[in-house]
Amino acid sequence: MSAAKSSVKKRVSESETLKSEKVKRVTVEDEFDLDLSNDIKGIMSALQQIRAKAQKDGQKKNEETISSVASEIKSKLDELRNKFEKESRFNSKFMFSIVRQSLAKALSKSSKECENLLKNETAKYQALHEKFCKEKAAHLHALKGFSVLAKSYAEGDIFLSTEHFAPPTHTLDYTFDSNLVPLKFFTGLRKFSLCFLLNEAPDDLEHCSLMSSVFCTSFLV
User: Fold this and answer.
1) Fewest Cβ atoms nearer than 10 Å: which of 72, 96, 173, 176?
2) In which residue ranges is the amino acid composition biased (Basic and acidic residues) (predicted)?
């Protein structure tokens, strides 16, 4: 009996020991699970903080990168603009120089042509002027000779015979009623001279032709 009771007590004590150990184990496991959960939460929080910081750092880095790229692009654009302005100025100056040279050549060519035309026209004018002066001198000389002859005949200082008006070649034969030139001759001569000076056609062509021949012959003798 006593042995049975002792075995029963031993079993009861072992079961209680097992229960207490089991309770302790559960308690430890619960504590471990709680600690693990807290650790996991801490890790997750740390990861979230790291991710947020990484995002902030990445955003800041991206902003810095974008700002740097924008500055570089702006610098390149300014450089290209300055280069384009310099080339535009150079091209403008070059084109202006070409246009100025073309205008200078055209003006030089035109001035030479005008100078040549002016020289030709001046030469023509001088020739015409000389011809006019010669014809004028001849007409004045003829008029002066006619005036002297008419005045001398009117005053009776000289007598003109047909020999003074005879052509030297004797190709024409003139016959008069007397050896002295009649007054009708000077009248016709005056008409012929006026017609000649005024460039008009005379009324009596045959008589004026005779007067012109005699008049010209008188100055040639």
Assistant:
1) 173
2) 11-22
